[in-house]
């Protein structure tokens, strides 16, 4: 079955955890003992109903405060599709968590409280989903039961968000009125909103088309591992393992190896030990070539006529994730696909206000949870595409070499301008 990854986003108390709890409950994806534990906790808290949000709020602090702090992942499946849900926090100080949860999502669910309409945090999360190039966005107008299931309220919020979305780059936008607490239009169609003729949420999640979201034109195969089994029967076997992150590969295709530039042809492709006729994203396969070439982890296979950009000067948007600020001159480890390098921060061009979309150019650093445009120089060339074209080859993480902690996440805009005579 096809896998759909989606992330929830929105303002505090818009009902993100309750919505996911309702999805899990109504699709019968939770165990009986889990439901009993939630009912017991709900009763102890004084709730008059079973608080399904407790299925997601796993941290003690989350249960005590009634908020989401960390990214919580849940898994469920229907006969049509498998799902991975990332429940991301709504607070400003947890922006980095939202970026983490949405970075691999195929779809973002942005929730709005029908009583409050669009809030600053709602706009911020929609902008981040747009910046991360999440292909599909669903605006769920929640708590419709508290406004009497009024169509005018839904249409007003829908029009306001459409106007705001004109500033963003959203490829697919859908609006659904729901009540996560009562289950209206979540898994089953609500009889209380006969004016809504669109799909219920689960139906949309099951049928949204995601296959075309992946780049099937530009071949990109970052080499992760060299496979050399210790066996007399396979003494001359050599293959290269990795995940196809772009294009379609078939036996007989000509490929070029980066950074060497040598070319060869594909002898065979194996998936879980069995030969296959083609490989495409997101398959993880072994590829053998007709020529004996020096290929190791961090190298990349591509088409000779359509290679990625090869550069050491990178222009990127970076989300900073730790309390120690990022300043020009900082030296960090950089992880891009399967390739590792060291990077120097040459310049911070501007910081973008994720609430107003305003650019602040007069700054000396990026603080925790801030996002800005940064110029980097790496010790070895990277093989990348623009993030808008390929989210895998267009993204990277920054690592503190002293603590080995991930301190930043980057989205590549392209090669950075370089001044002749400039020193790294």
TrEMBL record:
One of its GO terms (molecular function) is sulfate adenylyltransferase (ATP) activity. Residues 1-225 form the Tr-type G domain. Keywords: ATP-binding, GTP-binding, Nucleotide-binding, Nucleotidyltransferase, Transferase. It is an enzyme of class 2 (transferase). Its EC number is 2.7.7.4. InterPro entries: CysN_GTP-bd, CysN_II, CysN_NoDQ_III, G_TR_CS, GTP-eEF1A_C, P-loop_NTPase, Small_GTP-bd, SO4_adenylTrfase_lsu. GO terms for biological process: sulfur compound metabolic process. PANTHER family: TRANSLATION FACTOR. This is sulfate adenylyltransferase. It comes from Archangium violaceum Cb vi76.
């Amino acid at each position: 079955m096809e896998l759909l990854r989606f992330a929830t986003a929105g303002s505090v108390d818009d009902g993100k955890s309750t919505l996911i709890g309702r999805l899990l409950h109504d699709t019968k994806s939770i165990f009986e003992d889990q439901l009993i534990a939630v009912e017991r906790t709900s009763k102890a808290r004084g709730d008059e109903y079973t608080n399904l949000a407790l299925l997601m709020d796993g941290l003690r602090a989350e249960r005590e405060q009634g908020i989401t702090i960390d990214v919580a992942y849940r898994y469920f499946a229907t006969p049509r599709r498998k799902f991975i849900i990332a429940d991301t926090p709504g607070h400003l100080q947890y922006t980095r968590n939202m970026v983490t949860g949405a970075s691999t999502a195929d779809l973002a669910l942005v929730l709005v409280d029908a009583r409050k309409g669009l809030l600053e945090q709602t706009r911020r999360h929609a902008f981040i989903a747009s910046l991360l190039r999440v292909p599909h966005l669903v605006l769920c107008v929640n708590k419709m039961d508290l406004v009497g299931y009024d169509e005018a309220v839904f249409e007003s919020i829908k029009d306001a968000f459409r106007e705001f979305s004109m500033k963003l780059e959203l490829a697919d936008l859908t609006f659904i009125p729901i009540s996560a607490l009562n289950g209206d239009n979540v898994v089953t169609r609500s009889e209380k909103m006969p004016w809504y003729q669109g799909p219920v949420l689960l139906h949309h999640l099951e049928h949204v088309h995601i296959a075309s979201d992946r780049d099937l034109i530009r071949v990109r195969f970052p080499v992760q591992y060299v496979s050399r089994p210790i066996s007399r029967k396979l003494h001359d076997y050599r293959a290269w393992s990795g995940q196809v992150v772009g294009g379609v590969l078939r036996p007989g295709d000509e490929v070029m190896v980066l950074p060497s530039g040598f070319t060869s042809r594909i002898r065979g492709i194996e998936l879980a030990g069995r030969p296959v006729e083609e490989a495409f994203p997101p398959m993880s396969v072994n590829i053998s070539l007709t020529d004996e070439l020096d290929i190791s982890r961090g190298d990349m296979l591509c088409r000779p006529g359509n290679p990625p950009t090869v550069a050491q000067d990178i222009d990127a948007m970076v989300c900073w994730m730790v309390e120690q600020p990022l300043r020009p001159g900082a030296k960090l480890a950089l992880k891009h696909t399967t390739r590792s390098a060291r990077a120097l921060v040459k310049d911070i061009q501007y910081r973008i206000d994720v609430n107003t979309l305003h650019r602040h150019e007069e700054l000396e650093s990026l603080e925790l949870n801030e996002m800005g445009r940064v110029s980097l120089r790496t010790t070895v060339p990277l093989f990348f595409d623009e993030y808008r074209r390929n989210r895998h080859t267009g993204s990277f993480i920054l690592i503190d070499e002293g603590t080995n902690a991930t301190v930043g996440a980057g989205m590549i805009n392209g090669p950075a301008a370089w001044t002749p005579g400039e020193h790294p």
